[in-house]
């Protein structure tokens, strides 16, 4: 997803972060440096706290200590709380204990370093330990994972960072702010005239050069999850990064992408990821949440629920 608006155009900066692209837009051009520093501070914090690719991250320490109780930082506690809530409200479709399953599939390093075609066979998948097996006291921030369990907080932690950065940047600058981290977009502060126009695409990096449908958003957040971008091959099989906790394997591909609107990016991301995992059950489940959503099937068929508007073209791509 990429955001752009009608004149006057917001100030904008784009840079790589967390293995994806960070996009920042502000309605007051002079506020961009302050807003960017807020965003970069949040990005540094979540990387040091929740990265599974950094040997010095708190997540790495927690995973290595599985089986023994430990006290975690407030930042880690916030990310864990978001992940556990996502698991609870999706009935376990989004589960933070998929870490070992993701590693077994070959996503054991930054995605840019993943072998695009690995000849080794895919290990037999097995159900993940499950979020209910985690012992967690939010008051004391004491955590104990079952032995040999690895957490992966990636999706919800990235969405939480979008929410936090947008909210804090808007408070610091007093202007409208949009923060995008890959497919996770959060908005805060005054909305530009006509709303934030967000272009939708299978790959957020291509929505600039290959504009497709767009929606106008006046607040809250959008998140898109899909099976077409973070993919690789192993043992002759095409794999993607969204794991079904029941099987420990990539979710059966039913939807190419799912985009959801919600009050927070964490909720939007939780619902879009759950929909990919739920497959054929996604439409009735999304209807039960009341959240507006747009699902694109593998053959390109579009399903809209929750009052998602008909597609309208993006006006000339992102600017």
Structure description:
- Helix content is 28%, strand content 26%.
- With 319 residues, the protein is of the alpha+beta class.
- The chain has an 8-stranded antiparallel β-sheet with strand order 2-3-8-9-12-17-18-19. A 4-stranded antiparallel β-sheet has the order 1-10-11-20, with no helix packed on it. A 3-stranded antiparallel β-sheet has the order 4-7-6, with no helix packed on it.
- A hairpin with a 2-residue loop joins strand 13 and strand 14 (237-240).
- Helix 3 (74-89) crosses helix 5 (154-173) and helix 5 packs antiparallel against helix 6.
- The mean pLDDT is 88.
Brief rundown of the structure:
This protein has 319 residues and is of the alpha+beta class. Helix content is 28%, strand content 26%.
Secondary-structure map:
Elements (H helix, E strand, L loop, with lengths): L1 E3 L6 E7 L2 E7 L5 H19 L7 H7 L5 E2 L2 H16 L9 H6 L12 E2 L16 E3 L4 E3 L9 H20 L3 E5 L2 E5 L7 E4 L13 E5 L3 E6 L4 E4 L2 E4 L2 E2 L4 E2 L4 E8 L2 H14 L3 H8 L3 E5 L4 E4 L6 E2 L6
Parallel strand pairs: 5-13
Antiparallel strand pairs: 1-10, 2-3, 3-8, 4-7, 6-7, 8-9, 9-12, 10-11, 11-20, 12-17, 13-14, 15-16, 17-18, 18-19
């Amino acid at each position: 997803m990429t955001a752009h608006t009608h004149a006057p155009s917001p100030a904008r900066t784009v840079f790589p972060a967390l293995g994806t692209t960070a996009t920042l837009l502000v309605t007051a051009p002079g506020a961009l440096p302050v807003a960017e520093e807020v965003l970069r501070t949040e990005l540094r914090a979540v990387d040091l706290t929740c990265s599974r690719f950094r040997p010095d991250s708190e997540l790495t320490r927690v995973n290595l200590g599985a089986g023994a109780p430990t006290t975690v930082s407030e930042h880690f506690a916030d990310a864990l709380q978001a992940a556990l809530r996502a698991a609870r409200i999706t009935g376990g479709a989004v589960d933070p204990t998929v870490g070992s399953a993701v590693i077994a599939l070959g996503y054991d390093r930054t995605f840019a370093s993943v072998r695009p075609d690995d000849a080794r066979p895919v290990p037999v998948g097995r159900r993940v330990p499950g979020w209910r097996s985690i012992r967690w006291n939010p008051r004391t921030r004491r955590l104990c994972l079952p032995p040999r369990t690895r957490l992966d907080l990636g999706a919800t932690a990235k969405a939480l960072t979008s929410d936090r950065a947008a909210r804090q940047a808007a408070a610091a600058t007093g202007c409208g702010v949009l923060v995008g981290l890959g497919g996770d977009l959060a908005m805060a502060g005054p909305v530009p005239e006509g709303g934030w126009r967000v272009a939708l695409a299978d790959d957020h990096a291509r929505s600039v050069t290959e504009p497709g449908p767009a929606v106008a958003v006046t607040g809250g957040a959008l998140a898109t999850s899909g099976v077409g971008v973070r993919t690789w091959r192993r043992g002759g099989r095409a794999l993607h990064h969204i794991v079904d906790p029941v099987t420990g394997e990539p979710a059966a591909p039913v939807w190419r992408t799912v985009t959801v609107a919600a009050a927070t990016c964490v909720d939007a991301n939780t619902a879009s990821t759950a929909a990919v995992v739920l497959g054929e059950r996604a439409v009735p489940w999304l209807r039960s949440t009341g959240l507006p959503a747009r699902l694109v099937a593998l053959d390109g068929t579009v399903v809209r629920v929750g009052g998602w508007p008909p597609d309208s073209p993006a006006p000339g791509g992102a600017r």
